[in-house]
Structure formats: structure tokens, C-alpha cells
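Intended use. Records such as the chorismate mutase entry shown here are meant for training and evaluating sequence-to-structure methods. They are not intended to support clinical decisions.
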Amino acid sequence: MENKKELRTWLNNMKLAHPLVIAGPCSAETEAQVLKIAHQLKDTDATVLRAGIWKPRTRPGNFEGVGALGLKWLQKAKEETGMLTTTEVANANHVDLALKHDVDILWIGARTTVSPFIVQEIADALNGTDKVVLIKNPVNPDLALWLGAVERFYEAGVKNLGVIHRGFSAYEKNTYRNNPEWQIPIDLQTRFPDLPLILDPSHIAGRRDLIFDLCQTALDLNYDGLMVETHYDPDNAWSDAAQQITPAALDKMTVDLRIRVEEG
Ligand code: PEP
Ligand code: MN
């Protein structure tokens, strides 16, 4: 991918490409898995490695993440590959641990954004930080709840913010695991035009064959980045197996995607 529009401030300060590509597994599973994926990604357009270590699962009995142990694996992946790292934080304790282990970018999950007290607790724990914080939309199609979370972080003095569009749940299932409802992030951008907007096609799609088209739509809409779940053995991933793609598929996809050229 090439740079075709002015970079947003924190992307620029961190010397990250535009569009930003974040990739990595839904969940960190083992140290070897994290390192193998990081090495497979390091020569692609992905500059940030994602891996969930605290996984809020909808129903009990599913794999809920390796926990703080995974922070060391992310640190090692960063040392070995030079990629930046990102993980989900879902309470103030997670924030403290992630900051101690030098995670570069923190993201707030869709099940956390729905909960103002938890959002406030996390924002307070990050008060005045220079870290980048990416706020996923809430699971339900509620623009005000998403805006409210953004406002709580801004008010806590967190300047380097961005948002992640991961789709919205609906009782009636259709093509998508979570409906894109493209108008909602567009409306959020009219309120906060400087906020980088990143697409998470993986949780919208729920299946890998839809990911390319979702990414293309986002780039046509001038999104600032993509966060794509990536695993060397997607079918055997410990979570979200149906929607992950291989690092090789990601590499091909970013070459094939058409990047919107800014006029003037
Ligand atoms: C994830 O990114 O793996 C995740 C749990 O996402 P979401 O909060 O969007 O469901
Ligand atoms: Mn996932």
C-alpha cells in the first residue's frame, strides 16, 4: 500500500503507514504461536501485531484467553520483529499490566464500550497517557454509547484516540456475523472528524470470504486502517476460527486492495 492522503497526527508521530494495517490472531494461544505469526507478518503491510489475551466471551465455557502471561509473548514478538503491539484491555488492572509490559496500542472491546462505569475506570487508569487507544463500537447499534466512550477518554486527557468499526449485533442473523451499518461510523466521524477510523472486517464478517470486500468498501470510504484477524492455521484457532485468514492471504489482500486517491 502507498501513502495517498495526509496522515493523522498519531499515525504520523508514530511513523505508521496510512492506511494502518493491524493483524494477528484473535487470541494469543502459545508463545510459539504468537512468535510464528509475528514473523510471518513482519514483511507484510502489517505494522502492528494484535493478539487478545483477555477474551470476554459471550457464553461461559469458551477459551477466555491466556491472561497476563501473553504480555511477555507480545513483548518478545516486538523485540524479534520490530512490530508494534496491541491488545484488548477490559478493566483498570489490565491497563496497568499492559502499560508495564510496554504494549503500544490498547483497544477497548465491543462488550466493554457498552458499559460506562468500566469505560470510565479504564479512561481514569489511562489519564493523560500518550498511548494510542482504539475504541471499538458497542455491540449494539447505539451511536450515543460509542460517542460517550470517546468523550470519556478525551475528558480523561487521552489524546491519541481512534475508533474501530466491528459491526453491530442483531437478533436476526443475515450474511454478516455483525451488521456493518456503515452510516453509524460515518455519523461518528461528523462529530469527531479527526478521529482515525479503522475497520475490523473479521468480526463483521464472521467468515473469511467476506473480508476482502469489506476492506475495499472501507478504503473507498477513506478509512484510516484495517485490523484483520490472522493465524497460520485459521481452522484450528482457539477462537473465531471461521473468520481468520493466513498471513499470506493478508499479504496478497493488501496488494490487491485499491487505495482511494485523494483529489487535489
Ligand atoms: C476481538 O477483537 O477479538 C474481539 C473480541 O472483538 P470484539 O470486541 O469486537 O468482539
Ligand atoms: Mn476475535
